[in-house]
Amino acid sequence: MSTSRTRATRVALSAAAGVASVVLLAGCTGSPAPSSSSGDADDFEGVELTSWSSIDFDPYQTLQKEYFEKCAADLGITIDAQTLSGDYTTSLLQAASSKSLPDIALVNTDTQLPTLAAQGVLSDLDTLGLTTDGLAEPVAALGEYEDTLYGLPTQVEDYSVFYNKAYFEEAGITELPTTFDELIAAAKATTTADHYGIALPGIAGDGSTSSYFLPFLLSAGGDPADLTSDGAVAAVDLYKTLVDDGSLSKEFVNWGWDGIDQWKSGKAAITVSGPWNLVDTSLDFEYGTFSVPAATSADESSVGLLGYAYTVPVQGDEKREKAAAALIECRASEENQVDTAVQGGYVPALTSAQDAFVAEVPAAEAFVTPVANAFNPATLGTEWSALQAKYVDALQNATVNGVSAEEALSKADQG
């Protein structure tokens, strides 16, 4: 599966979930055995379960089916692991309404999990013996809604900086940027007649621009809920400076998720993207990664965190629910999480699996390091949708019309 399709599929999941939630809410080998609180393997002999996922690209789709089937065989369970195409959020909501949700549902943590949890259709995983042991606090929080654990995260996504090593070498850059000023200098130094220094999306409407912008805002100490915070000003000003310097093409306002193609084709030295590019075998140059720079040396790099978590919908059948929990526990083993990360381009949820991932894929360190300090956009609720649009308006106004970052944000806030 191509990287571009992987990216588009993941984006579609989140975008579809956002629309629906606004409307409604105005293998086991070598893996730890399920805990006794989830029931012994013999207890589940003959239990038949169904699981849903909407991640329909390989290798993820095939891997998930293999994990579940291996675990199910060990537990005496029969599992029908289904991958749903189309509007997954609508499928979940319709099933919730008709009380026909599957025994296990993989959901994104920013919109789908809180939407379903608010309807009371998800089981409290604590009561089924599942815990967040081994997860960093920001990761564990992804599976919670109103302080109750409804989903067990197994993989997360965040953003990092990718750079073309040859372009950095040609520019004489030996130290990777850690601050906005250093990033600006690196982008300027790698800008030539043949390629730009950096490529970032700036289009409105598809969620790409705000997804890439959020880490810069957070790494400037900004509060995403406060459009006029100093951090927001610093982040918008970063984009404005890059455009004014000629390091970022003015055409960036026409780029969306496909903006990374500028970097992949050698037309830019630097870009920001997700862990799915760690498994991209189409690149014909050597690349490196580094964490999103902080505004100053006094600030700390931070990112927005998106997760995918397994949930157990309420079935009114304790044995089936405990069987589902035991199956999830096995599926979420460190071995399986590392395998998914290495082959599928995700960051494992387990801290131990993250360390193992970095040992196998050193470039993943730039994605793993910020997790402990990550921000969960789901805490903003439905407000985040409106805020994203305003941030994009401010970015475009500042870079295209030449107004100051402060003025652009103030106008967007009032709009």
TrEMBL record:
Alphabetical UniProt keywords = Signal
The UniProt entry, under InterPro entries, shows:
Bact_solute-bd_prot1 (IPR050490), SBP (IPR006059)
Residue spans crossing the bilayer: none
Region forming the signal peptide: 1-26
What Gene3D superfamilies does its record include?
Answer: Periplasmic binding protein-like II
Q: One short Pfam family name for this protein?
A: SBP_bac_8
Quote the protein name from its UniProt record.
Extracellular solute-binding protein
Species = Microbacterium galbinum
Taxonomy of the source species: Bacteria, Bacillati, Actinomycetota, Actinomycetes, Micrococcales
